[in-house]
Amino acid sequence: MAVVRIKKDFHEARWCEPIIYELSTPGMRGILVPMPDDEIKRAAGDVMSDIPAGMRRKELNLPEMDQKHVLQHYVRLSQETLGANLTNDISEGTCTMKYNPRVNEDLAANPNFAELHPCQDEDTVQGILEIYYKFEQMLKEISGMDRVTFQPGGGNHAVYTAASIVRAYWEARGELDKRDEIITTIYSHPCDAATPATAGFKVITLYPDKDGFPDIEALKAAVSERTAAIFMTNPEDIGLYNPRVDEFVKIVHSVGGLCFYDQANANAFLGVARAREAGFDMCHFNVHKTFGTPHGSSGPANGALCVKEELAKFLPVPTVGFDGKKYYLDYNHPESFGMVRDFWGTAGVILKAYAWTMNLGADGLRECADISVLNNNYLEKKLLTIPGLSECYQGNGHRRLEQVRYSWEKLKEDTGVGTTEVNYRAVDYGIPHYWFSHHPWEIPEPMTLEPCESYSVDDLDEYYEVLKQISKEAYETPEVVMNAPHKAAGHKRNDEAALDDPKKWATTWKAYLRKHRK
Amino acid sequence: MSKPVYPYIPNSVPEQKQRLLNEIGIDSVEEIFKEIPDHLRYKGEMKLPEPFLSEYELRRHVEGILNKNKSCKEYTNFLGAGTWQHYVPSVVDEIITRDEFLTAYVVGDAQGDHGKWQALFESASMIGEMTGFEAVNKPTYDWANAIAIACRMAARMTGRREILVAGNMSPRRLSVVVNYCKPEIKVEKVKYDKDTGLMDLNDLKAKISSNTAAVYFENPSYLGFIELQAEEIAKIAHDNGAEVIAGVDPSSLGVLAAPADYGADFAVGDYQPLGLHMQWGGGLAGFVCTRDEEKYVAEYPGLLYGITTSVKEGEYSFGEVFYERTSYASREKGKDFIGTTTALWGIAAGVYMALMGPQGFRDLGEGIMQRVKYTQGLLSNIKGVKVPVLKSPSFKEFIVNFDDTGMTVAQINKALLEHKIFGGLDLSQEFPEYGQSALYCITEVHTKEDLKKLALALDQVIKVL
């Protein structure tokens, strides 16, 4: 056991890097391109004259830099980024920031994976097809579902794919005009509302009862012959497991609706409970969360959508099949609605997730669930002793599973320091920005933490010590917290309104120069 | 048998686990799992394969499976069609495999994650320069997703409910777009000239109406040709109050005009050719670019990383532009939906664009076009092979027809495998009007020897069978 020390002397790298255009010197080259040899050039002649004048490139304003300074610039920017593998990233509740094993990066860099073209003859990609097929079998076992697609490029994309399947299902039955409502809950991820809306459904949102659980009476009032489906998480993003989830499913099924289980929070129940036993028709996994692959600063990710056999005919094509001898791309989904992404999905994520799962096995996955909920309950008990901090629905008699939504409401009342300021201050101790809550903030001054199995007791203790310290500062020297961060790579923005002002905002350097450097 | 200690799970050490239990005040984790009612518990045991607990055995196992693949490093590859083989500079791989970028979270504000925000802002700035636009979003899932986003943006902006697309756009991308536009937006194909591939402007004029939200075409197109009528298409669209969406392969933008310069209102495309490994199609990442006008910016569904200033004099900062429009902020009332997409690939493309600079892209584009022309010359000498099929100039992809060989593309491609060559994509299903044709792709990775090897192999394959 190490001695837990708050990193009081932490200071993130602060390189004050110019924008890359400011580093440009005319004529410099970062890399040279392999040029065709003279025989090719002679034979080809003046190819540029094949392009009519109107279609020819005029100027191209890109930085001109030597290679060292490109490398240096980006290495410095990387040093100004708090990746999960180098920090105590309990911070990202709902996002399951696991350790991302280096060996899996080595495997993904293997030319026998990295240099595969998606349209190669199937005989030449039997290896990656095998990995897709076998990983599908694993997810079937973990979820209890019958078929899986790996085409969606992330969790939200998988939920959108589920909404597309709901639409295809009702279209096939000729009832889409009548079945136009999808129900969700307010503590389900925003995508459970937004993706059905994108797919053309009206969205009905259920609010919780007094204990924080989705209100079953509200559901009974909401379902009707218009109900196309319900999209819900469990445990919800506040960490409470809805014990009546199967009743929810039965109520929706009783009016003919489909039930989709958003399993973004699957780390809480690997090997403990499955979508099938609760009666769901579909579920998804955020492969990049639950199966230990890197978040990549926001992708590439993968959303594996799992369905029961009755819905398999609607899945995006292709999936991967096996005929006993050979793996192949399977287009046999006769009522498929099409594709959600070009080619076959983010194959690197599937490869890494396969390796991660093959390292742990069934016992290891169950260990993830066990340690996640233990870590969370340990941290919760300690954090709730911190002045100014509480949790939502505190004292409702239910334990949280893998995450907790806390509230700094009392701290704000007492000191003026709210969750935004605490969050900025935590960075001064080397802690990545934590996740507040999705909007709307039903819980005032929220903070959502998820100490998954990758974190040690020392990590948990450190996190507690840091928040305790910040609480103390808020009561004693609030200005220190209000002006934080002091030791991060960057300081607080000085004009938040500028980001919403068309005259000031700039998503590119060119726009910035035009608006601010006239 | 007791469980092993897992290197990825520090508290799997029994004593550590016991500390947790003691502190919580429970005897077993089951006291927490009681929250899940008994009838919902999974009573069976997950039947997963026996794990490889040691890293060495795991590596042997996975590498053993991967060794069943044949890569484009081992074979000479002429497949493109949406994922392209370009050289990936070492600096790019170095940057995106650093744990800082690789394992950073999605949001994370621009103080602790200042570098991530800056890198993504710079990528947006550079692709904006390539396409000629000043507003650029965070990377999308892929090019297809980018088209779909642009179509829905255009529909919301114009209040119109129809999209016209080039009839020979990528069929897979079209499939994505059609689904994404459902149920309210109709997607209709515009005819094209079979001999040139170019859009049939008469058909465009016949189909465009006051209900047309946007016209989409690709340049260079899926079939490789350059859409020479881009300006005319844009004019017809604008005359009818429709938006113009141009899909581009950015590796062409050192030699081909910026879409903004020929009248496009949106440029969409894929970052993959800019320094991303193919990864069996997993290297895709889309971009959407528009003018920096409120009516466009207000309709973006994705995150927009904006530059601003901080409380410290002279320091740049970054933040979310117009966040309220997103589904993170406004759930079903937001614009479509967002989520984790492909940021790391966006960072990679930024590093690539900075390394290449303007001259790099000019050299790349011209060198590819020279190789293409040279290859077409070589192949046209083979009996029964017709190339080029299209009469308009092409960039890095072109159709080769094999009708007169008496063989199918499938047969030819199987035979080419014996020569360690991946032949071009078989078009006979997607575009049957071209008979037994294949879409060949040539890039800067191809040497003269590679191209001669292809010609020689095709000659042999066609003669032998």
Give a short overview.
The complex is a heterodimer of chains A (518) and B (465). With 518 residues, chain A is α/β, with parallel strands linked by helices.
Structure notes:
The complex is a heterodimer of chains A (518) and B (465). With 518 residues, chain A is α/β, with parallel strands linked by helices. Chain A has 16 helices and twelve strands. In chain A, the strands form three sheets. Chain A has a seven-stranded mixed sheet, sandwiched between helices. In chain A, strands 10-11-12 form a three-stranded antiparallel sheet, covered by helices on one side. A two-stranded antiparallel ribbon of chain A has the order 8-9. In chain A, a hairpin with a 4-residue loop joins strand 8 and strand 9 (327-330). Chain A starts with 37 loop residues before the first helix and ends with a helix. The mean pLDDT of chain A is 97. Chain B is 37% helix and 13% strand. Chain B has helices at residues 14-24, 30-33, 55-66, 90-96, 99-102, 114-131, 143-158, 171-181, 201-207, 230-239, 294-297, 327-330, 343-380, 409-417, 448-464, and strands spanning 76-77, 135-136, 162-166, 186-190, 212-218, 243-248, 266-270, 286-290, 305-309, 316-320, 397-401, 421-422, 425-426, 437-441. Chain B folds into three domains: 1-46, no CATH class; 76-85 and 359-464, Aspartate Aminotransferase, domain 1, CATH 3.90.1150; 90-352, 3-Layer(aba) Sandwich (Aspartate Aminotransferase, domain 2), CATH 3.40.640.10. With 465 residues, chain B is α/β, with parallel strands linked by helices. The radius of gyration of chain B is 26 Å and the shape is globular. The mean pLDDT of chain B is 97. Chain B has 15 helices and 14 strands. The interface between A and B is large, with 221 and 220 residues.
